[in-house]
Predict the 3D structure of the following.
Amino acid sequence: MLAQRLYKYNPIDDIEFLFAHHKHTFERRNSNEVVVEISGKWDNMLLFFAWEEQMNCLHISCLINLEAETVNLPNIFELLALLNEDLWVGYFSYWEETRMPIFKHSVFIDEKDLNLTDKLSQILNIAITECERAYPIFHAVLKQNISPRKALMPMVMM
């Protein structure tokens, strides 16, 4: 019982196990962070996971490997607003340091949850699915200088 109280749950261990099981390459930066590169439909994506122990909160970021040719912040911010209005979980942002779009989501985790692995898989699937869905739209705006509303037109017709 004492050993059980001394152990602090860290979902980064589960994430590391999940990616090792699927033979993905990952880098454990420290006890509370791991980075994974995965192949996407359009390009590779970097997944960042960070555990905030005091809040019992796991933060997930998915960096879309799509650097802006020219930075048109009004277009980028308009696109982010339009994309985010339809999201139920997470949100897109623009990481100025890398000049790339990023999907972010945080979730509170209770170690007593029975289906943590399922929950982590579900969150991961949401992040990847949203990034795959938004990639061609970001590409149109960032690389082809198409207006955000015009870039979203194929999505509206679906």
Notes: Residues 1-5 have pLDDT under 50 and may be disordered. The CA atoms of residues 10 and 53 lie 8 Å apart.
